Amino acid sequence: MAPSSTAAVRAALRAGRAGAWHGGHPGDPRVGLSVPVRSDADLQAALATLAEAGVSATLLLSPTLARGLDRARLEGHEVGGLGDPAGAPGLDVLAGGPVVTWATPERLRTLNALGTRGLHALPPGTDRPAPGALLTVDPAQLPGVLADLKRLGYRAVPVRNVPELRAGTGRDLFLHGYTWLVEDRFARQHGVIDLAQRADAVMRVAPLDHAPAPLPLPRTAHTAELHLHSPRIVGLASRSALTAYRAYLRSLRDVGAALQDRPELQEAQAVFAVTLFHAPLAQAGFTLLDLPPATARWYGLGFRLLRVAYGTTRAPSEDTPKMAWLPREEFLRRYG
């Protein structure tokens, strides 16, 4: 397939064309796990691994393989499909009801065919889990992925059991483009370290070779700037403000570990953030500093654009950004 064709299919999937799935609640630790099964050996391996882990999943079966299977063998798992959607009626028989989830197609023609049959395509693959995400994992990779999900606080469930499961929309495609063009690009250019591997982790940190105003440090002092994982904190806040606040505080310990373990942060003399959410940081022991008026207006505009981009209707408790900071030693005493 030509790269342009691949890009077109991915864009169509992210926009929810023909009912393609997007995912579920962006603040819920449950992720939809699907496993493509192309042979009886694949099926045996997947079922054994899932049983050992006590996990149910969506098994993506080819209609040809499904013909010789006993429904009891798949007890507790959701039946999905892969390959030619014309064989979906055979999977309906095996599942004892309509199959609704299908493997990610490679061509727009196949995606459209799925939509006409009321089948929802899975979204493009992702290289890391996120709350409410849909993951497709080959049988050989299952043991490692399941162990990682458990370690990071995720819970794997069949696709149909993901809370608030929905199809994609044009806004999802826009957000993907915004994240790639703006946030990911910023992270690459500024060496931002992503500390948001856990399901409830919300922090990123950037090493700086200077101390921006109004920090009471020499201009040449190295510092560490905190950044929020915007979609994660929005998702957690949509569950409850308390959930987001607790995740915020827990994530400060991730920063403490990074200060001690990451070579690029060893010279940082202070940890700071420019944020509208400065009240939680003040409660966490940070000192608040007023920004110069022009700087505050510039940051305020940026934060308003972020709220529009990520669709949050929950306004922060403050509308004027401030700088919150702690000296390195004090930060490590509290969160190291």
Automatic annotation (TrEMBL):
Protein name: YkoP-like domain-containing protein
Pfam families: YkoP
InterPro entries: YkoP-like_dom
Residues covered by the YkoP-like domain: 223-335
